Structure to design on (319 residues):
């Protein structure tokens, strides 16, 4: 069984050597462990350092494409290289590499398709109260939307089976963490979680520049993914809210009408009628989105089969 540890990097020349050094090269149930670096347009010596420390594979983006794109490129590369299990970790040495063995164990045993490393954020010294509360709240929302019982939804330390990696299609430009869990839930992939350790902070997060922007971006990702995978339910909820608001002025007008005092309250009738019409239009969009969603699922199934054929052919060519 072949394990490839992928590390998306952006200007990580200082922390990359220790990150790679901490990756265990012998793991029970794994025959071969390799390391892949995805350099996202670094302007420092990240690539040179990666070569010096003996990284097995290096992929270079000509310019900065972002974390989500680099993650997606890494998954595709690992699959083409014949990985049976893929582990994603960060280049800033945030996670303790020795816990990779714990991450892959459920996959090796056939108990999970995806395993998320739970950082146990309550125990991380540099996580203040606001970050801890946001992490809990965000993870709870992701659990509700995806059905995956994961306590640390935004942890980047995670393992994927070959089959799970082939089924994931990352579309967002911000971060892959939430989207992969939402997709896993909709594809009925088995998701597990294990406790992992973290190292002292080496630098400020480049993804979380400030709390408001992080919350907005993650909420945007969740809203878009839920609308894509559950359009009828998503637009039904919006439609219901609009129609409930529209029902208020309509009921108000009817009360005055039956009391013989409808004069001067025609505005309530117009407003209520307009909102009810908008609500029905939104519901119609939901039905249309549901049809489109079904077609998209067929396309994704074809894409998975094409990937499987390509990867199997590459495996035969290597032999």
């Amino acid at each position: 069984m072949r394990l490839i540890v992928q590390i998306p990097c952006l200007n990580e020349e200082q922390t990359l050597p220790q990150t790679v050094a901490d990756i265990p090269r012998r793991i029970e149930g794994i025959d071969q462990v390799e390391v892949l670096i995805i350099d996202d347009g670094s302007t420092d010596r990240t690539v040179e350092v990666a070569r010096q420390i003996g990284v097995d594979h290096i992929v270079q983006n000509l310019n900065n494409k972002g974390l989500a794109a680099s993650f997606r490129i890494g998954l595709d590369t690992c699959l083409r290289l014949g990985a049976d299990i893929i582990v994603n970790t960060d280049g800033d040495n945030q996670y303790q590499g020795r816990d990779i063995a714990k991450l892959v164990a459920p996959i090796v045993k056939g108990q999970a398709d995806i395993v998320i490393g739970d950082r146990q954020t309550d125990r991380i010294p540099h996580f203040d109260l606001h970050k801890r509360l946001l992490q809990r709240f965000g993870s709870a929302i992701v659990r509700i939307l995806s059905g995956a019982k994961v306590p640390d939804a935004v942890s980047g330390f995670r393992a994927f089976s070959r089959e799970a990696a082939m089924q994931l299609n990352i579309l967002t430009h911000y971060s892959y963490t939430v989207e992969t869990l939402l997709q896993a839930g909709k594809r009925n992939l088995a998701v597990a979680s294990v406790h992992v350790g973290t190292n002292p902070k080496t630098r400020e997060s480049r993804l979380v520049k400030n709390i408001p922007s992080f919350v907005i971006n993650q909420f945007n990702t969740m809203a878009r993914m839920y609308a894509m995978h559950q359009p009828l339910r998503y637009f039904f909820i919006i439609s219901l809210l609009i129609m409930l608001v529209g029902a208020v002025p309509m009921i108000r007008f009817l009360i005055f009408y039956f009391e013989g005092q409808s004069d001067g309250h025609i505005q309530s009738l117009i407003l209520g009628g307009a909102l009810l019409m908008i609500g029905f239009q939104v519901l119609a969009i939901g039905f249309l989105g549901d049809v489109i969603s079904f077609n998209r699922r067929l396309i994704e199934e074809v894409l998975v089969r094409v990937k499987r054929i390509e990867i199997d052919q590459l495996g035969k060519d290597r032999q």
